[in-house]
Amino acid sequence: MIQTLEWTEQGVRFLDQTKLPTQEIYLTCKTYEQVADAIRTMIVRGAPAIGVAAAMGIALGVRASKAETVGELKRDLDRICEVIGRTRPTAVNLFWAIQRMKEKFEGLQIRSLAHIQGELIGEAQRMHAEDIAANQAMGRHGAGLMPSSGGVLTHCNAGALATAGYGTALGVIRAAVAQGKKIHVYADETRPFLQGARLTAWELMKDGIPTTVISDNMAGAMMKQGKIAAIVVGADRIAANGDVANKIGTYSVAVLAQENHLPFYVAAPLSTVDLACPDGSQIPIEQRNPEEVSHIAGKQMVPDGVAVENPAFDVTPSKYVAAIITERGIARPPYAQSLRQFAGAEANLEV
Hints:
- 40% of the residues lie in helices and 18% in strands.
- It is α/β, with parallel strands linked by helices.
- The chain has 2 domains: 132 residues, Up-down Bundle (Four Helix Bundle (Hemerythrin (Met), subunit A)); 205 residues, Rossmann fold (3-Layer(aba) Sandwich), CATH 3.40.50.10470.
- The strands form 4 sheets. The chain has a 7-stranded mixed beta sheet with strand order 6-5-4-7-10-15-16. Strands 11-8-9-14 form a 4-stranded mixed beta sheet, covered by helices on one side.
- Strand 12 and strand 13 form a beta hairpin.
- Helix 3 runs antiparallel to helix 4.
- The relative contact order is 0.12.
């Protein structure tokens, strides 16, 4: 299994995704500030992985704290969480992880500083294990939705690299292939950061799953030609009504899927579901550096003085989503009911 990130005594070890696919380089962040920078610069990316990374960064910061009282440690914790919370605004898993670590701290305030520090490290490690278990459960639930043979389109990377391991959308594909289904993946290149071309193709090549990379504007033609039987993507935030924020370009894929009478599925853990967010209009959309669009591999492709937009995500209305695959089952419309029901259910996952 691809080791996207892990806790070590030296710090949080990441596979540097900005170097893939040509270089497989690992780096160790020894401070929470370095973890925050790794999240911000997309050394680690994907909503579930960002959540686990945030928890590990908080644990790292708390372990290094010079606080002499619980009150001082609480102030350090709040400062650490504030820094990490400013990194990526759209991925709700980031804020879910911060809140979970804060709640863990609140339940430990009568204990010694060393005990609190150890418990927060343990909590971050549990979140890592839980994410892998959730992804594997999603794979089991979602595999049945995949065609017995044919093409499956993905957009962005929702695999092991976007999680603690195994993957959400790619986890569904992996599970389907393990069941004997003959799937050929079509991976949108996913401009401007090329997560599909660089990361999805790299992952699936390692697994021996047949994969073809296409440019984003080829998706509709591939659907019309009958090369695509289903679409499955991940998510960075899902509103209470089932509206889905995912990598920019996902909305276009969903509209094309409906036009071509193809099922559009979303695979995401329940930590990605934001029941406090009523619909997609309330989801904050991260704006990234325009140079990601105007330059390719450091070479300028856009004339000086021309305006550039670079929203990292778009929102797909729930009416285009055939089903949302979670670790506790498959949610179907009306999502306002099914997502709330799953979110309130007791977890039953092996960790």
